[in-house]
Amino acid sequence: MTSQVSSPAEQTDAALVGEQRASGSGAEGKEVRRLDRVIIRFAGDSGDGMQLTGDRFTSETASFGNDLSTLPNFPAEIRAPAGTLPGVSSFQLHFADHDILTPGDAPNVLVAMNPAALKANIGDVPRGADIIVNTDEFTKRPMAKVGYATSPLEDGSLEAYHVHPVPLTTLTIEALKDFGLSRKEAERSKNMFALGLLSWMYHRPTEGTEAFLRAKFAKKPDIAEANVTAFRAGWNFGETTEDFAVSYEVAPATKAFPTGTYRNISGNLALSYGLIAAGRQADLPLYLGSYPITPASDILHELSKHKNFGVRTFQAEDEIAGIGAALGAAFGGALAVTTTSGPGVALKSETIGLAVSLELPLLVVDIQRGGPSTGLPTKTEQADLLQAMYGRNGEAPVPIVAPRTPADCFDAALDAARIALTYRTPVFLLSDGYLANGSEPWRIPDVDELPDLRVQFASGPNHQLADGTEVFWPYKRDGQTLARPWAVPGTPGLEHRIGGIEKQDGTGNISYDPANHDFMVRTRQAKIDGIEVPDIEVDDPADDSGQGARTLVLGWGSTYGPITAAVRRVRRSGERIAQAHLRHLNPFPRNLGEVLARYDKVIVPEMNLGQLATLLRARYLVDARSHTQVSGMPFKAEQLAEVFKEAIND
Q: Does residue 333 sit in helix, strand or coil?
């Protein structure tokens, strides 16, 4: 959904907790309180539709004009036993009337559809928060499945919270009694009842959700109307019940965004659109060779819908076939992409090395997840950095680009395509599960804002032999970029040798000469080292005397949101701290060493065991301090803020 913002850009410091700004009376004389931000978490069994519920609430919030950030959290098992802790699925949404950066540390409202959802999430809920529970599920057997000897709704264990017991299942079945549905069919709509209730509580628009339901179930109009009825029943319940005496308003974030047209977008969707835009801006067909793998599969699904933009998708039989097909498409003159996660990168490594040797443009999109091996398919991690940097035999350097937010995945895809096409090299694009599944507002760019990525294919001979003969040398390089010419097969006179065995400089003939091999290895490295990337920018506000901070926080990828939120908290407490964030990890920005040398302390938060910190220590000989987390979940801003304060005062 899209919304218009017509005010100038202006970021504001937010209160650390939701602030009541005004109150009045709503329907039935109920009180209406105005908040500056809210964090809601929907949680239930993996079959309860929590992701759909969260997605619909998010879409309506985006159309209303709030800034937002989301954190879907999926079970690792495809279908865990119903009502068990491994089967709990949740969706957290943070929305506000100002600029925000994370899905929030802890929910102000927890909607728990069963005992497992309550037990799995209660540890994250702060005292005084609202908990809405589906009382119909708190019977002896479901509670026993998760270790509740007595009902937490009756034993006093939830006294620190505002608990709202709601028989969601019973109320949904009653609302749908005239539809002739079985009890099981009617129960499936209880998530829409909950969505209607929360939509009333926070004054969310409803028209979009009703239209969505009718479109989704267009072939089953009775089911569509049943879901709409359940949704409306939840709204009406909130308006009429005495248990919900207060509703809340969160105003649009009119000062948080530059002027433009916005839509809510996830990282994988933004990345897909970025790849399509790159293909159009390069005036090349876009080819995706891929094998389904969590959490990258959504890119394959999305790109398969856009044949009208010259996109061709190939779902291969395995990871190796996927990248092999993509590399073949690059040889044929396409903008070639392969998508995967960490385990797939391991399988693709030999072909990535072949792409380095062939010096062809290829985008390798790695949506990182927890490892090693199969690891945590539905959880996030940043542990593939060293694999992307060094995970090939021989000296096989590959540029690495990492987006920092879901919306930034669009720009990162264009940047990765620029590097691949300009320098004739495979490029790693390192996203992760947190960015891929999370969402935020994205300003839809005008076409004239997008970079020109058009390339010139080789069209004729480029070298003259001693006897005056005009020939084509496939490895005769551009003097500035060191890129070799891109010759599309079938072009008359441009026949050339291709393959993985070392090439002779210039001619491309097979060569076992030691001096030539040394030269080619160093030339390929020099090509990557010479890639033009912007200098890293440092956010270091000086004090009244002009003195800057002595501590720098340096991050990469998806840690941007939590780090920035934590830095804001530290500064509000009166401490000075600087922040910088890397998009380009190979090559590093040329000014990075100078920047690091300016600070007494450098802290590097990562969702791994210190991979970037290791690279910085080796390259720049700085005492980079790691702060690491490998829990499968993103950092919390409050925890990082404490780490930063301790480092400043150490």
A: coil
- The upper half-sphere exposure of residue 192, i.e. CA atoms within 13 Å in the direction of its Cβ, equals 26
Q: State both tokens at 497.
A: 């040798």
Tokens of 153: 């709704």
At 544, the pLDDT band (50, 70, 90 cuts) reads low
Give 129's contacts (C-beta < 8 A, 6+ positions apart): 106, 107, 108, 109, 110, 161, 162
Q: Which two tokens stand for residue 601?
A: 């302390």
Q: Are strands 470-471 and 463-464 parallel, antiparallel or unpaired?
A: antiparallel
By CB neighbour count within 10 A (0-12 exposed, 13-18 middle, 19+ buried), where does 305 fall?
Answer: exposed
The pTM is what?
Answer: 0.94
Distance CA 650, CA 644 (A): 10
Query: Which one, of 435, 106, 60, 348, lies nearest residue 210 by Cα?
Result: 60
Distance from C-alpha of 506 to C-alpha of 440, rounded to nearest angstrom: 48
Q: pLDDT (tens digit, 9 = 90+) per residue, 599-638?
A: 999 999 999 999 999 999 999 999 999 999 999 999 999 9
pLDDT band at 22; cut points 50, 70, 90: very low
Which run of H or E residues covers position 350? helix 342-358
Please answer whether residues 313 and 304 qualify as being in contact, where contact means their C-beta atoms are separated by less than 8 angstroms: yes
- Within 13 A of 184's CA, how many CA atoms are on the CB side? 1
DSSP bridge partners of 37:
96
| Distance, CA of 361 to CA of 474 (rounded, Å) | 15
DSSP class per residue in 299-328:
HHHHHTT-GGGTEEEEE-SSHHHHHHHHHH
Contact status, residue 421 vs residue 335, Cβ threshold 8 Å: yes
Residues of the chain with pLDDT > 90: what percent? Answer: 90
pLDDT at 12 over 90: no
Per-residue pLDDT tens for 403-446?
999 999 999 999 999 999 999 999 999 999 999 999 999 999 99
Q: Is the pLDDT of residue 14 over 60?
A: no
328-334 contact pairs (CB < 8 A, 24+): 329/287, 329/289, 330/287, 330/355, 330/360, 330/361, 330/362, 331/358, 331/360, 331/489, 331/498, 332/488, 332/489, 333/284, 333/285, 333/457, 333/486, 333/488, 333/489, 334/284, 334/285, 334/286, 334/287
Q: Rounded distance, CA 92 to CA 103, Å?
A: 7
Three-state secondary structure call for residue 591: coil
Under a CB-based contact definition with an 8 Å cutoff, are residues 267 and 431 in contact? yes
Angle at 19 between CA 17 and CA 20, to 5 degrees: 150
Pairing of strands 130-134, 538-539: unpaired
Distance CA 647, CA 567 (A): 12
Task: Tell me, letter by letter, the H, E, C secondary structure of 176-214.
Answer: CHHHCCCHHHHHCCHHHHHHHHHHHHCCCCCHHHHHHHH
Lowest mean pLDDT among 10-19, 45-54, 231-240, 458-467: 10-19
Token duo for residue 380: 């996030």
